[in-house]
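Handoff note, outgoing to incoming analyst
You'll be picking up this chain. Sequence as last confirmed:
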Amino acid sequence: MTEWWTYRVRSFVLFSARTYERLIEAYNAELWPLQAVVWLAAVAALAWLARGPSAARDRLVLGGLAAAWSAVAWAFEYRRFAAINWAAGYAAMVFAAQAAALLWLALRSRVALRRGARIDRAGLAIAALGVAYPLLAPATGRPWTLAEVVGFMPAPTAIVTLGCLLRAKPARTPLLVVPIATCAFEGALAWALYGGRP
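Most recent structure output, in case you need it:
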């Protein structure tokens, strides 16, 4: 039996990079042009967050994040990714729980997405990275059909959520667990699929 320390992340990925890319291409083609609409809404949300305090706006942003996690859970993880990755069904349940927690936060809790100048700027910068995430596809030599958009794919949704929740006052640290774990998983998956390429 092979020793446990000889395993690599790639040893646990049961599909190829091309299979994953075909999945994303088909997913994006099926839902186009919704990605453009949601991306523009995310840009508008960032602009709103950069303005002065507004409880209604903060609730709307949190509600939008809840909708984004719900969409990723159902449309991507459960309906598509689970076909090539058995763990995606479990991820869908975790994402749905994250969506429910964000919706509860938007509807029931007194929370503001503003803490202080430095934290607010840092959170906004992180959220902007998530919104700009689709640019990674052409930047790495892949076609636009592989672009990953917030509200459709896990990584950009998690990054935008991290940025917004870092600004939350009072702090909502437990809600950061799923986005951080998602970023770690997506990073490990990208390394496993593309890390060996020149």
